[in-house]
Amino acid sequence: MARIKSAENAKDPATGRPLPHGVNCRGLRQHRAWKLLNGQRIIRTFDTARLARAWLEETSVKVREGRHIDVRALDGLVLRTLIERYRDECLAHRDADRTGHIPALLRDPIADLKLSRLTVPEVRGFRDRQGKDLAPATVVKRLNLLASILNHAMSEWDVPLTLNPASGRMIKRPTGADRKRNRRLVEDAPEGPTPPTATNTTEASEYERLLAAVTSESHPDDVWFVRWAIEQATRLGHVDKRSIRSA
């Protein structure tokens, strides 16, 4: 025999109006909605009766149209599991992400959320926490990495997320992340820079200040490595500095 709602559970405490079949109030901020699907109840709990009623109506429409996806599996999955799996399976060649950005994701409280609780406001909170101490470009990289993890989980691991709450369409990226550099190491004269000294660094160019800083270190011969690297447009990862010294 079906359970009958009590008089208190059958009304919306905010408005006093009767709740629809499939929604009841179980206490403060405990409004439960349920829908029978394939002989099993799908149950969700919401803070307000309005949200519970909206979920019930939306789910009913999806069931009628054959668009409903059973997301109960999301209750048993934690975001941390996806991050670690993505790290182990997809980032073997990306050391910067494995050693920098992935540990940062795992340290944040968002990593311990069930996927059923992973919403746009939760990702927004992650963005704002990261933005307190980090440059906008770093925050954008971590948001994009999180979005990539969720996209991969949806397309390759059949995780039944209905949307990606970290995507650029859902979460605004911090401003200022795409600022271009405006400092260039340019010599002032065709014949080369003025020899750097302790007295002329104030008026020296960026190029001269760099050479002066290198010359003042404990390895003054490094100035030749710096000159060579600039002329060759060499990045840090392209050359082993120790091999240049030993040459």
TrEMBL record:
Residues 1-11, 175-187 have a biased composition (Basic and acidic residues). Keywords: DNA-binding. InterPro entries: DNA_brk_join_enz (IPR011010), Integrase_recombinase_N (IPR010998). Residues 1-21, 170-204 are annotated as: Disordered. The keyword DNA-binding applies. Coiled coil: none annotated. This is Site-specific integrase.
